[in-house]
Amino acid sequence: MHDVNVMIIDDDDITLTLLEHIVDELVSGEILVFSSSIKAHAFLLTEDAQRINLVICDWQMPSVSGIKILETLRVKLEDCPFLMVTAMPTRDLVMSAKRLGVTDFIAKPFSSDELTQKLSTLLEKISPA
């Protein structure tokens, strides 16, 4: 188990539940779950955002995109790992996200094993178990 705080943002309830379940198996810290990109973005603008160690975020959401979330995160926490979840990993998205400092991508649909492997790799870099 990794003692880290994870922020998960996805407007799809099924994906959000799956992400939360897998993260819960890997971390002992706090898991902040947002189905609203507006609320997630607002949280990142607060001082409480400083306690986040990892962000998992959908790219395409109504109101505030994953790219905007990443951009806001980089202003507050420039070294915080960011896993972008997307159903459409286009070249433009990948290039924009890389310019802003995305740490990794996972394409929907993904398997539990694939997500667990990506998260384990990111978590090992943050907080070796």
UniProtKB/TrEMBL annotation:
<keyword id="KW-0597">Phosphoprotein</keyword>
<dbReference type="InterPro" id="IPR011006">
    <property type="entry name" value="CheY-like_superfamily"/>
</dbReference>
<dbReference type="InterPro" id="IPR001789">
    <property type="entry name" value="Sig_transdc_resp-reg_receiver"/>
</dbReference>
<protein>
    <submittedName>
        <fullName>Response regulator</fullName>
    </submittedName>
</protein>
<dbReference type="Pfam" id="PF00072">
    <property type="entry name" value="Response_reg"/>
</dbReference>
<feature type="domain" description="Response regulatory">
    <location>
        <begin position="5"/>
        <end position="123"/>
    </location>
</feature>
<dbReference type="InterPro" id="IPR050595">
    <property type="entry name" value="Bact_response_regulator"/>
</dbReference>
<feature type="modified residue" description="4-aspartylphosphate">
    <location>
        <position position="58"/>
    </location>
</feature>
